[in-house]
Each structure stands twice: as structure tokens, then as C-alpha cells.
Please model this.
Amino acid sequence: MGRARVSAIWLLRLESIILLGIALYLIIASFTSEVNAPGALVGEIVFALVGATGLFIASRGFAQKKSYGRAPAVLANGIAMGVSYFMITGNFTLVGIPLGALGFVTFLSSLFGYSE
Model:
């Protein structure tokens, strides 16, 4: 297996675990603090769970040497880089810079990790 493919597999799985952690945090926080917008909170939890599932399935595609994981992985990490840009411009650099770095490395690994 190529280095980019192995990197893509593990980086996508790491991102999946991070999203699961965010969903778990939001679920716990909903019980320990006051929720002003419950609909938005449920939407964020569902989005995080769906995203984590999608990234994990994409990582399995890379592991099985199938092409179905490449496009979603590249798209998701392109979106993550855009989100990190807005976080950085909004002075939320503590999260924006690591998100941008992880998104960029995973983007490149996903882009070059598939070969026929």
C-alpha cells in the first residue's frame, strides 16, 4: 500500500473519531447546561454523527482499494479548510489552525492516495 493511501486511511479515521467526540461532548453538554436552541443542537449532533460515519466509510474505501472513498474525503476536507479559514479570520485561531492543518494534510493524502 502506498504511503498516501495509508495516511489517508488513518487521517480519515482520526477525523471520524474527532467528530464522534464532538457529538458526545454536545450530547453531554446538553444535559449539563442550558440549551437555548435545541433544534440547532440536535442538528449539530446529527451532522457530526453523519459526518463521522461518512469519513469512516471513506477510510474503508481507501483500505479496500476502492474508489468510492476518494471524492467524499476530498470534498469533506476541502470544506474543513474553508471552515478553518473563517475560524481564523474570526479570531478563533486555537481551533482554526489545527483544523486547517489536519484538513490540508488529509486533503492531499486523499487526493493522491488512490491509484488504479
